[in-house]
Amino acid sequence: MNKKQLRPILDTIGAMFPDAHCELIHSNPFELTIAVLLSAQCTDETVNKVTATLFQKYKTPEDYLSVPLEELEQDIRRIGLFRNKAKNIQSLCRILLEEYGGTLPEKHEELVKLPGVGRKTANVVVSNAFGVPAIAVDTHVERVSKRLGIAKDTDSVLEVEKKLMAGVPKDEWTLTHHRLIFFGRYHCKAQNPSCGICPLSDVCKEYKKRMKTVQNRKSKESKAKNQVAPT
Predict the structure, then answer these.
(1) Counting CB atoms within 10 angstroms of each CB, which of 48, 51, 65, 231 has the fewest?
(2) Phi-psi map region of 141: left, alpha, beta (phi>0 left; psi -120 to 50 alpha)
(3) All domains of the chain in start order, with CATH
């Protein structure tokens, strides 16, 4: 999909979700990093419930290292993969203290070296905490991009990111990331997308696939009704 074809899609989603934003509650880059780390395979809603008390108890890297690992695990046990995430948080905090003076690095290449921080997490942090344009591809962004034909079904997450970066103006990367998430989270859902009221159904592969399924079912039902019973 070229830029000219992508533009009306971006404008439509932008009109639907003009105020899209990061829904992970945080007050500084360090908290955002912890929240995004916790959000892997977990909803932002659940993460926010956990961090509401977590961020009151732990405010610095030193705080996370001042308790046994088992205690931190209990503090985040409502989060999926909580044991592994607790281990990564303490390892991350240890590296921040040993190599960065307790301060979160701002560069993407430094962030991805931290335990539990992959490319997506680093993109979220640099764009939301440090104002660096980036497109983080989570499950919502990937799903929407493939359904709307921005990327191919066989594309990897990195390939989806590259195609979005190529088609979206750089100064719109961060906002587009949030809008695609909102579109996928609240409209083009994984299981029950709002295809019937979607203004982008004409370009959506998922809509066409669902319509074909419906038509095939109706055709089979019609044939069954018209079939003459054997005498």
Answers:
(1) 231
(2) alpha
(3) 1-190 (1.10.340.30), 195-226 (no CATH)
